[in-house]
């Protein structure tokens, strides 16, 4: 997967999430993570369980975990 650079100084991180199986799952996870302050884009892929997040600065992993939990899925960690 190619790293995204939406704006100079942005940070791209890839996380693993288990339990996603469809586009609705991807949307739920993306929607919750996109509400974290500083996040500019989120791309969740159910088939790989990977969620790519672009943000202004590195995110607190616990904030990402909480967002994934809120969406109803299991946060595994950084990919």
Low-confidence stretches: 1-6
| Overall form | globular
Strand order of the largest sheet: 2-3-1-4
What is the percentage of strand-forming residues?
Answer: 25-35%
Distance between the termini: 11 Å
Mean pLDDT: 92
Q: Can you write the helix and strand succession as a string?
A: EHEEHE
Number of helices: 2
The tally of beta strands, per DSSP, is 4
The helix fraction, in percent, is 25-40%
Radius of gyration in whole Å, from Cα?
A: 11 Å
Structural class, from secondary structure content? alpha+beta
Largest sheet: 4 strands, antiparallel
Feature tags:
4-stranded antiparallel sheet, disordered N terminus, 4 strands, 79 residues, alpha+beta, 29% helix
How are the secondary structure elements laid out?
Blueprint: E1 11-18, H1 23-34, E2 39-45, E3 50-55, H2 61-71, E4 74-78
Antiparallel strand pairs: 1-3, 1-4, 2-3
Helix pairs in contact: 1-2
């Amino acid at each position: 997967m190619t790293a995204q650079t939406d704006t100079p100084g942005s940070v791209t991180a890839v996380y693993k999430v288990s339990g996603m199986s469809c586009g609705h799952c991807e949307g739920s996870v993306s929607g919750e993570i996109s509400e974290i302050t500083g996040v500019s884009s989120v791309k969740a892929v159910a088939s790989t369980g990977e969620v790519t997040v672009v943000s202004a600065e590195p995110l607190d992993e616990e904030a990402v975990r909480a967002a994934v939990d809120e969406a109803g899925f299991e946060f595994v960690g950084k990919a």
